[in-house]
């Protein structure tokens, strides 16, 4: 793989930035990787594990001379970081981000990007419940999507170059408009996380079932909920505060469906339950058929094909 950028600066050295470091190194996509994180502890760890070629003590120092700057901080912190680095960005450089929400990030960051610097927002659809500089791994983005969200007047060549980087990192690339991105992610990621947080909270609250019973008898479904509900609280607080409208819309629809299922259970309406579950099973099967679930065991795929 050939180099896509000379110097890449990563601001925030958590799961996503550290995975980008490993993946860029794996494919030789950057001449030099420079990093900055707000906490001294994170910077020390990054230096100790040699995550980047250089770790700087300020964001401004890290972006100096960088061809690509990627903001990898919680979405609520993007605007403040952009304000700090805006005045020292190299003319012709590109600023991108990896935030899970796009509209508010664009509104907060764009005003700080000087003329002559490109701003190309992006969102890799890959993650784990872990965070921090030690949690990253090169394969995180392999065969996942990275959605690029060009802003008005985005330079085509700059967009294509960011797309080349993400392809080099292992991802498939799509483009979307910011509001549509936020609605899609409210359905596929944000509301499901809220439901997982709630379910784990409910289990914890139920005094007739002890915590040790929940741990001991967790079947696969609940185990997945606890994994998701272990995700970083700062990141997810910021996601919900910044994707308020879309999340509330999807949550409203979710509540309506839940009430209908609740009524069907109370009234013993087996047909309603059966039809509903048949429909949702078809959705799962179409995801597997489209090859979108790389974690699904092979027997799942062949079982679908054989029907
Ligand atoms: N974790 C995921 O599953 C996932 C997936 C895709 C995108 N994202 C997005 O990527 C971004 C980073 O997430 P992550 O999982 O790598 O988080 P993380 O918690 O692992 O890392 C965040 C980093 O940002 C730093 N930071 C926090 N506040 C800061 C501030 N005000 N100024 C400077 N640095 C600050 C932290 O010190 C840390 O180094 C978020 O915007 C998140 O929405 C996360
Ligand atoms: O697999 C996980 O742990 C994730 O939650 C990753 C996940 C998702 O919902 O799919 C979470 C947030 C993102 O912005 C992108 C990906």
Outline the secondary-structure elements.
Elements lengths: L4 E7 L3 H13 L2 E7 L3 H9 L5 E2 L3 H5 L4 E4 L6 H8 L8 E4 L5 H7 L8 E2 L2 E3 L20 E4 L7 H14 L2 E4 L2 H28 L5 H6 L3 H9 L4 H10 L1 H24 L2 H20 L8 H9 L1
Parallel strand pairs: 1-2, 1-4, 2-3, 4-5, 5-6, 8-9
Antiparallel strand pairs: 7-8
Helix pairs in contact: 4-5, 7-9, 7-11
Bound molecules: nicotinamide-adenine-dinucleotide and prephenic acid (PRE).
The site of prephenic acid (PRE) has 8 residues, from loops.
Describe this structure in words.
Its EC number is 1.3.1.12. The chain has 2 domains: 5-176, Rossmann fold (3-Layer(aba) Sandwich); 180-268, 6-phosphogluconate dehydrogenase C-terminal fold, CATH 1.10.3660. α7 (178-205) packs across α9 (220-228) and α7 packs across α11 (244-267). The radius of gyration is 21 Å and the shape is globular. The two termini are 41 Å apart. The chain has 307 residues and is an alpha/beta fold. The strands form 2 sheets. A 6-stranded parallel β-sheet has the order 3-2-1-4-5-6, sandwiched between helices. A 3-stranded mixed β-sheet has the order 7-8-9, with helices on one face. 53% of the residues lie in helices and 12% in strands.
Largest sheet: 6 strands, parallel
Integer tally of domains: 2
> In what order do the strands lie side by side in the largest sheet?
3-2-1-4-5-6
CATH architecture label of the largest domain: 3-Layer(aba) Sandwich
Bound small-molecule species: nicotinamide-adenine-dinucleotide, prephenic acid
InterPro entries: 6-PGluconate_DH-like_C_sf, NAD(P)-bd_dom_sf, PDH_C, PDH_N, Preph/Arog_dehydrog, Prephen_DH
GO molecular function, one term: prephenate dehydrogenase (NADP+) activity
Family: Belongs to the prephenate/arogenate dehydrogenase family.
Enzyme class: oxidoreductase
